[in-house]
Amino acid sequence: MPASSILTETTIDGPRSVRWVLEADECKALAVPRIARLGIDEAVAPYERVRLHPGGSFMMVCVAGSGRVLLDGRWHTVGAGWACMAPPRVPNAFHALPGKTWRFLWLRFDEPAFVTPLVSAASPVRVKVDAAQLLRIWEGLRAEWEQSRDSKAVHHWVELVQHHARRLAEPWRRDERLRQLWEKVQTRLAEDWTLATLAHEAHCSEEHFRRLCWKELGRSPVAHLTSLRMQAAQGLLTANNDKQEIIARSVGYRSPIAFARAFKRWVGCLPSEYRVRG
């Protein structure tokens, strides 16, 4: 059974977890780039978070230890030096492993449906990062906030957070072949894309294309294609009243059953349930 189908909204810290959280309600500089909150967590089991229908992009950067994160509808163990991210309105979940301390940075955005989200279906699901550099930025913001609270200095640190968050969300733009390919695919999702046709469009071998996608996107080419299709389907389900069969075909699924199965694995509910949620 897909992990996303058995999730329930959950917030558990546990007695040994330590958290520092900064909210936009108290730090107005965060609201400018639509950051709802950010923090540094030292998570110890039974620490767990599950968000079924988050209203904004989410990012986390593992600094030390390891934990379990739900990515593309499946659980993965994520260790130090890796960043994970998820677009709005897609379930994201993570929990600490027994006997381990998991330290990570995180930020969550507030992005209503009319706002272009920072993390999109075109963003990587997981990417290698310089976690030490990012930790210095988070700790710099924390030190300024807890000591001087100079508004200009706080704004400077928040700008650094936003700059690096954007860089994480769009690393694939550094490769012109990938940028052109995925922009083309997004406008032609109904076509029968395969690994072979994708690699041909990117002008490289299938194996090289596969390695390139894993490096820049943290997922296989086919998984990234599915992500683009699911993101488009979410928009169509909320924007119009077309039958699900029509939406399925428009994003590349000939079978409504296959579309519903894929949608539930990636989004956490059936297309009909998603449409009701609005």
Describe the protein's architecture and organization.
With 278 residues, the chain is of the alpha+beta class. The protein folds into two domains: 167 residues, Jelly Rolls; 104 residues, Orthogonal Bundle (Arc Repressor Mutant, subunit A). The protein contains nine helices and eleven strands. A six-stranded antiparallel β-sheet has the order 2-3-10-5-8-11. It has a five-stranded antiparallel β-sheet with strand order 1-4-9-6-7, with no helix packed on it. α6 packs across α8 and α6 crosses α9. It starts with 9 loop residues before the first strand and ends with a helix. 37% of the residues are buried.
Query: Using only CA atoms, what is the Rg?
Result: 19 Å
Which strand order spans the largest sheet, edge to edge or round the barrel? Answer: 2-3-10-5-8-11
Mean pLDDT: 91
Number of domains: 2
Q: What is the CATH fold-level name of the largest domain?
A: Jelly Rolls
Globally, the shape reads globular
Largest sheet: 6 strands, antiparallel
By CATH, the superfamily of the largest domain comes out as Jelly Rolls
